[in-house]
């Protein structure tokens, strides 16, 4: 039996769009990747081959945009810097020469373990210019996570800071393929060890003239590691041809235009920070703002006010934290520069969208994609009404479908596996060194299987249900944990919620909720009852959590997803498995 618990009647209509993607239906009919390629590539591309760094940086540095600010940067201590496209070209040219001087060649893996410093962005561009393969790693990783990535990729060079290098020191002996460690913040009192070299010294000697290496479009660009259900994390490998997807999705989904000041809050250690933190905006010649600091509601609003951020790409967790920080805080800032907000990474609760409309006078546009898809695949567009709780519609030119285990397409309303028809430019090209795990993605009759379950409604909107292994079956009813979590969040006492299916002799599974209360609410039996009744009435009689456990926080990945798997393992006293992506 299939139940679509989400109320699908609600829609948010918006003002008509004047630029960007104006007509979704028509764009789909006329769409061709070849046409996008022609739009992006200048006919006079000097290399005659391709390089994303040329298209994103060098091209603009040779155009009227040369003195336009490409990167506004702010450090945790308030230090501010800005770089024009021309400055980024010169610095990345220098950096490419510097890397070449220590032996980096086309195809070599260069991993980066840095906070969101300007050098992180400059090295990513430089690595692409050389045709080497970048491996950005989140600066909160511990030694084991770093070791696994450097080992699996057989990285030749690591770019890091003295402080972060200390975390690598304990595992260095396990990394014989690593030849050089480039220290970005080298100070004199530090004794360089055998493999260490100093970024600043090498940069000083390097020329700032470098011609981006002309590549085949299928040459690899970067590797990002992501967890599967089993085994170690997989090195998802992307190529330069991805840029076709980055360019057009940034333009049509994030709606970026030349005059925008854009802020993507993600770290390049996660795919959002790599694809839409730098490549997407720069391929479109747009100014991007980067904040190398932690989440802080007041600071975030101050950023929007100071930099006059116009387009903001963030995550549901952040939005929920902002919601928790309260509406009074918002009144202290002038946020009128904001014109467009998008979200990614986990289900965006309808409650958060309604709150966005109330406090920012803007709806939040959910976007769905994965490390593997390389770019946004399903989204809410400026020109389409939003149905709160829906991920939106497939990007023009791509086909998304709900399929059963044999690859048959299911009709509207039925829950099934979310699959994509292979062939879009930014699809993963390999799981680094693991052909078998790569093939597994395509094992259902040639579809690319996302691992998510979802359903499609009569209007072609897609609704997220859960990971393929997260859907709860209680007394024969299928219930998506997202729907229950969303409903819980609508209760005035609930700040955060994670929901799992707990094995039950009678019902197969019962729904169990882990709940973090909002400030000012105390745990009590009465409140527990109240929440249960609230959900029973709000959602469905079968979909209320029979068990509620109150907790101080929820285990989350560093990209903000609640780790239901971990909640479940802890609840059942099972081994917790790979938790290398856990937040703390
Ligand atoms: C998984 C991919 C690519 C952005 C960061 C996450 C979940 C992603 C949504 C959304 C519901 C979402 C899916 C997906 N997810 N976006 N809008 N609504 N779920 O990348 O770490 O590769 O995770 O994140 O489960 O499969 P990722």
From TrEMBL:
Keywords: Acetylation, ATP-binding, Ligase, Nucleotide-binding. Pfam families: AMP-binding, AMP-binding_C. The keyword Nucleotide-binding applies. Residues 483-561 form the AMP-binding enzyme C-terminal domain. It is an enzyme of class 6 (ligase). It comes from the Bacteria. One of its GO terms (biological process) is acetyl-CoA biosynthetic process. GO terms for molecular function: acetate-CoA ligase activity; ATP binding. Gene3D superfamilies: 3.30.300.30, N-terminal domain of ligase-like. InterPro entries: AMP-bd_C, AMP-bd_C_sf, AMP-binding_CS, AMP-dep_synth/lig_dom, ANL_N_sf. GO terms for cellular component: cytosol. Its EC number is 6.2.1.1. Residues 59-418 form the AMP-dependent synthetase/ligase domain. Belongs to the ATP-dependent AMP-binding enzyme family. NCBIfam families: PRK04319.1. PANTHER family: ACETYL-COENZYME A SYNTHETASE (PTHR24095), ACETYL-COENZYME A SYNTHETASE 1 (PTHR24095:SF14). This is acetate--CoA ligase.
